[in-house]
Amino acid sequence: MTKTNLITGFLGSGKTTTLRHLLAQKPEGEKWAVLVNEFGEVGIDGALLADSGAVLKEIPGGCMCCVNGLPMQVGLNMLLQQAKPDRLLIEPTGLGHPKQILSLLTSDVYKNWLTLNATLCLMDPRQLSDQRVINNENFRDQLASADVIVANKSDVTQALDNQALDAWFSQNGDGRQLVIATQGEIDPALLDLPRRNIAELPDGKHHHSQVSARGLAALSLPETRRWRRALNEADGYTSCGWIFDADTVFETAGILDWVRQAPVDRVKGLLRIKEGTLMVNRQGDDLRIETKPAAPSDSRIELITRDKAQWNTLQSTLLKIRLS
Ligand SMILES: Nc1nc2c(ncn2[C@@H]2O[C@H](COP(=O)(O)OP(=O)(O)O)[C@@H](O)[C@H]2O)c(=O)[nH]1
Ligand SMILES: [Mg+2]
């Protein structure tokens, strides 16, 4: 039986950061697997987790519980049957539907394969002051279906955010454990906590568009052999991602400015620069930059926003930042 946890949380709350911390604590000799589902079509979290020593399966492009749960079931079956991991950590998209995922994981199909332990939900307490986030159904469902709430980013939260967290938790805590964390540095022992009996959640609206405008915009452009773009739209959010071929190199200062200034909620990317690989991960003003000397096998960057974005304007600036 594979001990399994869902690691949920809204866009940019720190799920992947937490996974990286947990994977770094993996006991020698144990086999861990990670199933990561991203809202964007392009898939970047996998690359951020690639050096972790875990067996990794990515499902990009929307919510893994949708389309009858098939993409998730295929990915999950492959991981459980081929890798037979001791532990499985699942990161759904920040816009995912935890109820549907939990019901799949607790269904008969998996009862001989996995033991579902506590669901951990990451949150950025600053989001409690953002009406559009707290009214978002996915945000609310994720917190409601969690067994442990992890208030992350304690290095950047202010007194007001902590008051908002206290107020929220006294109303919604419901006897659950609250963990305060920075950079997702939580105790791996939390993974062994059992799942609580959670109240039935109301069925969330489940309005994911089934047809995304995959690459349509790029088709008319003569340069498509060097890059393509893909859009996804669901639950009021849109993502736009670009993949460039292995020979494309970006100018470092220019791409960093573009990442900082793009008027969107979320930016994730893995890009070839002269010095090797640049990894960028931005939520609001939180920006993490990492570099590696080796060049990546392609360059990819993804933006997510709930407001209308000028994808074509952003794209033409992005294309100009290429050195080759
Ligand atoms: N300041 C600060 N930034 C954080 C913390 N945890 C994560 N981040 C940053 O928040 C952004 C989103 O993190 P990520 O783990 O990718 O979020 P995910 O979308 O939930 O997987 C990245 O820029 C992280 O470096 C934290 O505790 N403090
Ligand atoms: Mg992530």
UniProtKB/TrEMBL annotation:
Source organism, top-level taxon: Bacteria
A GO cellular component annotation in the UniProt record: cytoplasm
CobW C-terminal domain location: 239-322
InterPro entries: CobW-like_C (IPR011629), CobW/HypB/UreG_nucleotide-bd (IPR003495), P-loop_NTPase (IPR027417), Zinc-reg_GTPase_activator (IPR051316)
Pfam family, one: cobW
Physiological role: Zinc chaperone that directly transfers zinc cofactor to target proteins, thereby activating them. Zinc is transferred from the CXCC motif in the GTPase domain to the zinc binding site in target proteins in a process requiring GTP hydrolysis.
Protein name from the UniProt record: CobW C-terminal domain-containing protein
Species, as recorded: Rahnella sikkimica
